[in-house]
Structures are given as C-alpha cells and as structure tokens.
C-alpha cells in the first residue's frame, strides 16, 4: 500500500479565489529579490555581441549602471562604494599624481595628416562653390574623426567650418564685487606639510543666498515676499557659479586645487555644494574668494510672457525663422537678441554661509565625511 503525503504549505491554484491569487508574489519580484541578495543588477540591458570571424550573435546582459537606489539598488551600491574608494584614495595624497601620456603612433600621425589634407581640400571646394565635393569630403572627415577617437585620441579636432565669432563681453569685474589677487599657478596639487608631519586637507560647504524666511520644512513663511524667481534662476545657473569658484580659487591661491564634490538640495530646494579639497587654504581666503565669485547670465529679457500656447509664434518656411502671429515680422534669433545687451539678465552669487573644516587623512572623521559626500 502506497501512502501519498502532501506538502501543507503547497497551494492549490484551482481552489484559490482571484483575490487570494492577487496577493501571491510575482515571479519577477522573486527574481529581483534574489538578484539583490546576490548583488546582481535587477534590470540588466540586453546587448548584442557579434563575432566578426564566425558571425555568431549572442545576447549578453550588461548591468544598467544606475546610481539611483530607487532604480537599481545593487548598481547604486556598487557605484557608491566606487566613489568612496576614489575619494579615500585621492583626498589626502602626499605625492603628486603623475599621468604619462602615450606617445602618438605612426597610425595616429598618418590619420591626422590625412585629415589636415582633407580640411584644406574642403576649404578650397567651399571657396569655389563646389558643394557636392565639399559634402563628400565632410563625410570622409567624419569617418576619420570616428577612427581617431577609436584609437584613443583626446582633445578638440579642428572643425571644417569656422565657428561664428562669439559676442565679446567686457572682462572687467563688477564694481560691487571685491577684487582678488592673481598669482602664477604652481604645478602642484598636494597641500603643505605642517610641523613636519601633518598634511591636512579641507572639507568645504557652499550654499546659495537666502530668498526669504522659511520654516522647519523649508516652506516660505511669507510666500508673497519670497523671491521664487531668483531662487529658480540661481538653481539653474548654479553649476556655472561653482565652475567660476574653482577658477577663482586656483588663480588666487596659486596652485592647481583638486576636489571631490557633490551637490544636494536643501529643504528649501536650493542646491547645496560639499567638496573635499586636497590640501589646505586659509578660511579667510576661502571666504574672500566666495564673496568675490559671481556668474553673469547674458540672456535677453525674459520677465514678461510675450507668446503663449494659445498664441505661439509661427514658423515661416520661406524666411526659415519664427514670426509674429499678428504682424508676420521675423523674430530675432538668440544671437541677435543677445548682441546688443548692456547689462546681464541675472547675476548668481553664493550666500554668506561658508563652512570650512580641516581634516587629517586616515582618521575616523575623514571616513565620516567621505560617507557624507557619497551618501
């Protein structure tokens, strides 16, 4: 006699109701949970790999490489650990990092010489009005550029057509911004040694100015007095302001300052910048550089709405320009609208709060700040 035993945990799908079946886990969810437990990408990209000798085609899964935890936790965790390692290895260096460039090969020089000959032939065809030959040469140059990039050539390649001359702006500093000293740049990136043994580095925090009082949740206390327009413009042009800050810093301190930074939003929505600087800079000097740093936005006036979705400008195929829907007058291009500007449309500056802290490498405090930069 054979005894048949059944698993008490097994479910009979035929006896379950629709509501009970809806509560069961999906196979995709189980696969994602298993992938996360093993640190595997949960949404890999399917890439086609072709063997150029045999012609065999294989589909290879490639990690998505996302840095957002809400999209792919394993890839985001891997990227975070990589950033932590990079910051830890580069923040407190005591020797100059030297990168030796590879010498150009014969293939590099031959392709570059061919490109120079094609560039001269292209300009000659353009001067003679031979448009067909110029287009064929342009296609050949594009193929050469692709091949040069594949061989590992970095840097800017001379364009076929001369770019339009940019509008010249005055480089004179604003009268409401303090001046900064400009020292010759030394070829070093590491900081100084103090007391013969200590080489500290710097943790710097910069933020934007206040636009009005906010509560503990970051909301405006008085919405009618809060400068929303300036807050939005400052957030848009914040990257250019940060880039200008590092330019001023290197010119002022006289050595090639290196940093590892991150931007995060505050509760009020304004961007907040944290940076780990290699070496030390006096606090007073950093505050002076911050106060003297600004970025001018040379845009046409954009305070008033001229055209709306119910009354948009009309594209004229004959003049190849947008025109006014009522008068048919061609509207100026962006370059034309910016050509006669006298004052910038907006000026971005940092706020008065500048946090500077010296940190020694290899300490517990350095580890905490690295975790803060890569959180």
Could you write a compact summary of the structure shown?
The chain is of the alpha+beta class and 375 residues long.
What topology does this entry show?
Elements: H1 18-22, H2 27-37, E1 45-50, E2 57-62, H3 73-91, H4 106-128, H5 131-150, E3 201-208, H6 228-236, H7 238-253, E4 259-265, E5 271-277, H8 283-292, E6 294-297, E7 314-316, E8 321-323, H9 334-339, E9 346-359, H10 364-373
Antiparallel strand pairs: 1-2, 3-5, 3-9, 4-5, 6-9, 7-8
Helix pairs in contact: 4-5, 7-8
Description:
The chain is of the alpha+beta class. Among the domains are: 28-91, no CATH class; 109-150; 201-299 and 344-373, ACT domain (Alpha-Beta Plaits). The chain has ten helices and nine strands. The strands form three sheets. The chain has a five-stranded antiparallel sheet with strand order 4-5-3-9-6. Strands 1-2 form a two-stranded antiparallel sheet. Helix 4 (106-128) packs antiparallel against helix 5 and helix 7 (238-253) packs across helix 8 (283-292). The longest helix has 23 residues, at 106-128. It starts with 17 loop residues before the first helix and ends with a helix. The mean pLDDT is 87.
């Amino acid at each position: 006699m054979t005894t048949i035993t059944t698993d008490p945990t097994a479910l009979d799908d035929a006896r379950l109701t629709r509501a009970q079946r809806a509560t069961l886990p999906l196979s995709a969810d189980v696969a994602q949970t298993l992938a996360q437990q093993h640190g595997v990408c949960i949404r890999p990209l399917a890439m086609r790999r072709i063997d150029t000798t045999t012609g065999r085609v294989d589909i290879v899964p490639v990690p998505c490489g996302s840095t957002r935890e809400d999209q792919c936790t394993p890839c985001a965790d891997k990227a975070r650990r990589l950033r932590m390692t990079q910051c830890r290895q580069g923040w407190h260096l005591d020797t100059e990092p030297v990168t030796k460039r590879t010498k150009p090969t014969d293939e590099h020089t031959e392709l570059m010489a061919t490109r120079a000959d094609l560039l001269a032939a292209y300009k000659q065809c353009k001067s003679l009005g031979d448009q067909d030959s110029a287009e064929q040469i342009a296609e050949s140059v594009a193929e050469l550029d692709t091949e040069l990039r594949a061989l590992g050539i970095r840097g800017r390649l001379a364009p076929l057509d001369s770019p339009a001359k940019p509008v010249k702006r005055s480089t004179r500093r604003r009268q409401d911004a303090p001046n900064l000293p400009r020292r010759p740049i030394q070829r070093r990136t590491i900081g100084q040694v103090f007391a013969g043994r200590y080489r500290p580095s710097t943790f710097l925090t910069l933020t934007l100015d206040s636009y009005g009082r906010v509560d503990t949740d970051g909301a405006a206390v008085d919405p009618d007095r809060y400068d929303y327009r300036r807050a939005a413009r400052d957030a848009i042009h914040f990257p250019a302001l940060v880039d200008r800050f590092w330019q001023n810093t290197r010119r002022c301190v006289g050595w090639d300052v290196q940093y590892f930074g991150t931007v995060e939003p505050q509760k009020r929505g304004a961007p907040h910048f944290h940076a780990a600087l290699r070496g030390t800079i006096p606090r007073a000097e950093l505050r002076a550089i911050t106060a003297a740093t600004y970025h001018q936005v040379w845009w046409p006036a954009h305070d008033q709405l001229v055209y709306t979705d119910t009354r948009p400008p009309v594209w004229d195929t004959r003049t190849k320009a947008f025109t006014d829907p009522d008068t048919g007058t061609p509207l100026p291009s962006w370059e034309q609208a910016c050509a006669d500007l006298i004052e910038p449309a907006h000026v971005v500056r940092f706020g008065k709060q500048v946090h500077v802290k010296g940190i020694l490498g290899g300490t517990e405090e350095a580890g905490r700040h690295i975790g803060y930069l890569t959180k």
